[in-house]
Structures are given as structure tokens and as C-alpha cells.
Amino acid sequence: MASYTKAAQQWATFARAWYLLDAKMQPPGKIAAATVIRLEGRHKPIYHALSDCGDHVVIINTRHIAFSGNKWEQKVYSSHTGYPGGFRQVTATQLHLKDPTAIVKLTVYRMLPKNLQRRTMMQRLHLFPEDVIPEDIQKNLLQEIPQPRAVPKRLDEYTPEEIAAFPKVWTPPKDFRRK
User: Residues with Cβ < 8 Å from 14, sequence gap 6 or more?
Assistant: First the structure.
């Protein structure tokens, strides 16, 4: 009987789990860092660099990622067709408008180790521009990966009670006039 429970425990250790990550208002680098750990299997106690023990990761809301600063216009993605004069450069905005999942996919791909397992790991990455997930994938999800950064509330999401309770930095005197 002890070997039966050990076999079940080993199967659970080696089984591929499905994780969900919400990319809304998250920087692509932070999303990729959390994703690569699961794709490689580095979160498992049985991890070895040569073993393929990674899990599936489903990333939703890739259309709503956030760059800091002016990276939407300044970050450039380059590629080459292989033909003379085939060097192509595209800004992050142009790439995001063309394919909302491309920036996250490229970021994860570049963070994975550069070996023969990289393509296999990328097959376990599932990207969706919105929060709509197909039924067959949704039934496999086991756990949600916490977002790397807290999503700030928009001003229209605050209730009037919260706005009234917010501490005032300065209260103008009664005879105060704006110019």
C-alpha cells in the first residue's frame, strides 16, 4: 500500500499543471519573469536543467499591458528577412496594434534559455488578448499566479465616501480667491 501512495505522489509531482496570469496593467518584463519560472519548472523540487518538467501558463489581457516611461514610442523591435536590405524595425506601439500578444510572446521567448528546449517550452505558453479563454483550457486551470505589481485604482472607481475620507493636504480659507 505504501508504494501505491508513493506512485500517486510521484505522478502529482511530475504532472503538468496549468497556471493563469492576468497581464492587465503589468510590465511585460515582470510578466515574462514570472512565466519563465513556471515554463521551465524551476518552481518544482525535481527541477533539473536537462529535464522537461515545466508547466502550462495561460496569460490573459495581453492587450492591456503597461510600459513605464515613454517606451511605447522609444522601444524598437528589430528583425531581418534574410534578404539584402531586409532589416525591419517596428516600435512597440506598431507591434502591439498589429498583434496584441506579440510583445509578451517576444519577451518570454527572449527570457527562456537559448537551447533546444525553448520551442517546446513556448508551446506550453497560451496567450489571449482579452480575458476570454476557451472552455477546454479553462477546465485545466489549477492556480493563478499573483500579479507582479498591484494594479492602481482609477479615479472613477473610488466611491464618494472614499473621496470624502481622503486626507486633505490643504484647506483653503473662506476668503480665498483664484485668479
Answer: 46, 53
Buried b (16+ CB within 10 A) or exposed e, 13-39: eeeebbbbbbbeebbbebbbebbbbbb
Q: List, for residues 8-34, the tens digit of each pLDDT value.
A: 666 666 789 999 999 999 999 999 999
Angle 111-116-118 from CA coordinates, rounded to 5°: 30
What Rg, from alpha-carbon coordinates, does the chain have? Answer: 23
List b or e across 127-146, with b for residues whose CB sees 16 or more CB atoms inside 10 angstroms. Answer: bbbeeebeeeeeeeeeeebe
**Cell numbers that stand for 137 in this block:** 483550457
Whole-model pTM: value is 0.83
